[in-house]
Amino acid sequence: MQIRKQNDFDELVLDSLFATDGPSGTVDDVLAWVRHRNQEVIVRINRKPFSELKGWGFDATSGNLGHESGRFFSIDAIRVFKDDGKCQTWTQPIINQPEIGILGIVTKVIDGVLCFLLQAKIEPGNVNNVQLSPTLQATRSNYSQVHKGKKPRYLELFFNAKRSQIVLDQLQSEQGGRFLRKRNRNIILNLDEEVPSHEDFQWLTLGQIKALMAYDNVVNMDTRTVISGLPYHSFLSGLSTYDFNGYMRQHDVSQRGRDLFASEIAQAGRHSIESILFWLSELKSKYELVVDRIPLRDIQDWQIRENEIVHNDRRFFRVIGVEAVIESREVKSWCQPLLQPMQEGLCAFIVKGINGVYHFLIQAKIESGNFDVVEMAPTVQCITGGYKERLDYNVHYLDYLLSGDFKSVWLDSKQSEEGGRFYREQNRYLVVEASDDFSEDLPQNYIWMTLGQVKEFLQFNNFLNIQARSLIAALDYQ
Amino acid sequence: MQIRKQNDFDELVLDSLFATDGPSGTVDDVLAWVRHRNQEVIVRINRKPFSELKGWGFDATSGNLGHESGRFFSIDAIRVFKDDGKCQTWTQPIINQPEIGILGIVTKVIDGVLCFLLQAKIEPGNVNNVQLSPTLQATRSNYSQVHKGKKPRYLELFFNAKRSQIVLDQLQSEQGGRFLRKRNRNIILNLDEEVPSHEDFQWLTLGQIKALMAYDNVVNMDTRTVISGLPYHSFLSGLSTYDFNGYMRQHDVSQRGRDLFASEIAQAGRHSIESILFWLSELKSKYELVVDRIPLRDIQDWQIRENEIVHNDRRFFRVIGVEAVIESREVKSWCQPLLQPMQEGLCAFIVKGINGVYHFLIQAKIESGNFDVVEMAPTVQCITGGYKERLDYNVHYLDYLLSGDFKSVWLDSKQSEEGGRFYREQNRYLVVEASDDFSEDLPQNYIWMTLGQVKEFLQFNNFLNIQARSLIAALDYQ
What we know:
The structure is a homodimer.
Chain A: H1 7-17, H2 27-40, E1 42-48, E2 56-58, E3 65-67, E4 74-83, E5 87-96, E6 101-110, E7 113-122, E8 130-133, E9 136-138, H3 140-144, H4 155-159, E10 166-173, E11 183-191, E12 201-204, H5 206-212, H6 221-228, H7 233-237, H8 241-250, H9 255-265, H10 273-286, E13 288-294, E14 302-304, E15 308-311, E16 317-327, E17 331-341, E18 345-354, E19 357-366, E20 374-377, E21 380-382, H11 398-403, E22 408-416, E23 426-433, E24 446-450, H12 451-459, H13 466-473
Parallel strand pairs in A: 6-11, 18-23
Antiparallel strand pairs in A: 1-16, 2-3, 4-5, 4-13, 6-7, 6-9, 7-8, 7-12, 10-11, 14-15, 15-16, 16-17, 18-19, 18-21, 19-20, 19-24, 22-23
């Protein structure tokens, strides 16, 4: 195994994790700023029939819903054959956005603390208009046409980044059930140089970002996925037990926080990395997922109506057309399709101490847009169903989660999915510690992993799905 | 990082690596056995026009060439858009075999040495009829229908394997330029129980298998990919320097062998695993690969003729139809398409000592059937071109390899590709140690990696392509 040469940066990340105040004040100050930005802006979302969606239309041959420029994204369709024990086949609309998006955060040490430059960004689908997004959200076209026309703010910092400034660079998946094999490049830069300020942007500590995830819908999905990959491992695992304890006392870390850090640097878990890889190989071989793109006009069990594309049973999600009118310093308006979920979802990790080390209960889950059949998902992920009504659901551990019978609740908040594609989608994100009598024996597509193992898989890209990464990002160590 | 709990098995693997004699005698004895099997069998391969290929036909709609049962594989076509600096687009035939194949080797300790059960197997495309293949080559259908009809020998050992018997379980890719995202499950079992013998099978030590790879076309591609993943790491890295040196002396390992082992357990390389992952993320984001399946009848620049599917310039490969007649103890005959390469290829690693540690020069290569845009390939991989004539080639390091100006040559033999799909394809496999003045500065899509790093990526599946794995499998430590 390779020793990371990043001790120094890891230590900065950890110190930032413990900093609750930063250049933008306290967590409350940041929250007030976001709320203020929210009040300042008026967002009107007007439903439009597809025929009035300026710039968008159904392709004459395929019936796919796309933009006349061929850019942005399109609503296509897929036929799915899934065999995860029971064979199922269906067709569904899917967002096709083949370009790899770039989600980038600039960091910089300010007054001795590593800070992350986040934007108060308006997205048409956000329940509350403005959320904290990465420094940069760009597409490959933005990126490669850096010298032409209007370009996103701070793009040139990423475009001109030296290799030594890149402290994270991962390719990670988006929602497998909604996007066709979409991936984003998650980049974090660490800069020494002066970074020009802008009123839409603020410098936050990692501790502040974590604290804000305890609130509903403040930190957007893109920020969550980027920070989920941050390492602390190499610094902590380089400490002796004595120094580790000293470090924890110095930062006033709770017993739970210590145990969580200990799970991140544990030398042994219930299973080795190798066994976990074997488990995945077995499932990927055993399960089958065949996804073929089909013309949207050939979709079955869905209706393409004047103002929505909807399942016959009005389940899962529907595609709607909207005109977004944003009034802040200037007035902007444009039209686009959005996906609207038909219910609120639930994403939850169950955690349990096993042999004195916290283990996360990971689910291997097939989703139709997955890059590689199965990704590691939260213990429970009910996005498409209506988990509260338990609509024809037979989901492992859902009853347990709804029972409320835990040792403790580590996280329980609502988080939004990408507001540029999804209309007012918020899901409940939950992390609970199971009581001691929770069975350690699991169904075949579930496994226990330490936090260190989760992070190692995260580093190798495309193993953990976006919901799992969101939950990991929200873990709080205080 | 996770400590593997496999020390004991790793030590067995290493001991087997040093064993040149085994239950089947010496390397010469095994070679004589394979040659004898080769003489015993008569293989006649009769070219047939596609119209006379029993059981096979062109689909009325797509024109794809498939079997009437819908099983085995089919010859489909793809349209490729590739942007790795220069944009290229083309169509080509491709083998579509969506099932994950199973390549399994049974191992067992015999007289204190770990032995691998290999089969002398006839494949219609082999240049020399019989080569040493894994204990089992099966498809998912074979596997799931284990209780029905005729089944491959030893299948039930894999089907009934307990988790504790599985010592390797990886999903790895096949030729990206020929197969559409095909993968195999590579499994090794370690059994205590009696394994019934059969005249087509022999027990070989790992040292013998390695020694046989110095000969042309003895060890088949499937065996090479399975053994490429074998670990020795956890045993060796657990030794003190004193014990390491003692172990090497005890087994009479050459200085080069020691240095190679040292490269496998090196704590630091020229780049960290994390930097290598960043490098890959960057290339995967920068490069673009769009592959769409198209009907074979829509293929361009290729001719679908009575008895071949061939490129207008007669380059790359052609698809032919054959009737295979195998006469050994019984006479079997069947028809199938095969791919015939239009030239011999070259796959080569350049290795260099950097800061006292051997590093392999890895190429990030786009191939049309790749699972994830780019895979790690040998320094030079010229399969499709005719490297000897340097047909419109502009390949980094090809001139260097053809110059013969090395410090030493570690491997130079011809190895066959899968004889069940490819007609008499053999490529030259070469590993050379570069002289000290070989530049350590590389073009952007090349990187230096220690052997330990190569093996770590191998463990995480789908990072190293099959040609790279073949070369790693052939590394000899004596």
